[in-house]
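This part of the workshop introduces the protein records we will be handling. The question running through the whole workshop is how a given chain folds. To make this concrete, we reproduce a full record directly below:
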Amino acid sequence: MAGYSRTDRISEEVKRELGAIIRELKDPRLPVMTSVISVRVTKDLKFAKAYISIMGDEKVKSDAIAALKGASGYIRREIGHRLNLRNTPEFTFVPDDSIEYGAHINQILREL
């Protein structure tokens, strides 16, 4: 278990719960293909950076990030209730293109 710190465990828990909360949100700007790639929580648990994969064009992605920012108060409250943390982090949502990039590389490899 060496190297696996408390913040790493909390980051994983937050990632799991954040994914569940995003699936429950009823915002039409959030596409079905929205998933949490990773979450980095600061040691003091005041801030969390959530890397979100959103399938779609740039407008879909920016709308989805705006929807998440708009729901951040609700998300923060839910995370606090579900994980029973002393400090609930403030979220920053960052679009993550790694899945899309991987699909693009696969497409290129198939064409070779």
Summary: The chain has a mean pLDDT of 91. Residues 80 and 88 are 5 Å apart (CA to CA). The chain has one domain: 6-111.
